[in-house]
Design goal:
This protein is of the alpha+beta class. It folds into 2 domains: 3-88, no CATH class; 96-189, Trafficking protein particle complex subunit 3 (Muramoyl-pentapeptide Carboxypeptidase, domain 2, 2-Layer Sandwich), CATH 3.30.1380.20. Helix content is 52%, strand content 21%. The chain has 8 helices and 6 strands. A 4-stranded antiparallel β-sheet has the order 3-4-6-5. The chain has a two-stranded antiparallel ribbon with strand order 1-2. Helix 1 crosses helix 2 (22-30) and helix 1 crosses helix 5 (70-88). It is globular.
Length: 190
């Protein structure tokens, strides 16, 4: 059964609460069916536990609920993903990333990092040439358009944190558009 670890989305929820306020988050979470709130363990807290695995369908219901209407979605994705990544990559993690991680190391560690957040699918990063990395996500049975969207600015933030400049990303393929896999292409200035 496809599951997603809380850490994949908890930083985003924290940002949402800080940006829009606890009252709005509580209102949005209140729109979730009771059984979904119970399985997500949102009764006593407004966020997910980083180390706990959640049913992908429940996480999808959560992001659909707080994802906003189409006008807000771009802001929610761009700002929320960046701030969630900043939260995750704070302190010593940010310093280590800046000092030691290169695009080639990022590519090698990608599958291990993927497995920390998703119990299904596979990710492959390929540094095709200097200044270009292609990411392919296959078999992601719990794909969700908003979660997929969040991956893009998160990757840009990680590469900027490495010290790379003029980082750009495009998504030539996505399961949400009927493709068999999601593909991101990151480019940066050499």
């Amino acid at each position: 059964m496809p599951c997603i670890r809380g850490a994949a989305i908890s930083g985003f929820i924290r940002w949402y609460e800080q940006h829009y306020g606890a009252a709005r988050l509580v209102t949005e979470l209140g729109r979730l069916p009771g059984h979904t709130r119970e399985r997500l363990d949102l009764i006593a807290s407004n966020t997910l536990f980083d180390s706990k695995w959640y049913l992908a369908a429940d996480v999808h219901a959560l992001v659909d609920t707080i994802g906003g209407d189409f006008r807000e979605r771009r802001e929610i994705v761009d700002l929320g993903a960046r701030e969630a990544a900043r939260y995750t990559l704070s302190g010593v993690n940010r310093t280590l990333l800046r000092l030691f991680v290169t695009p080639a190391l990022y590519a090698r560690l990608g599958p291990r990092m993927w497995e920390k957040y998703y119990n299904h699918g596979s990710i492959e990063h390929t540094v095709e040439k200097a200044g270009r990395l292609t990411t392919r996500i296959r078999g992601w049975h719990a794909h969700h358009p908003l979660i997929c969207d969040i991956c893009m600015p998160t990757a840009v933030y990680i590469f900027q944190t490495m010290g790379l400049s003029d980082v750009r990303i495009e998504r030539p393929a996505c399961v949400a558009r009927g493709n068999s896999e999601c593909v991101y292409v990151l480019r940066w200035k050499i």
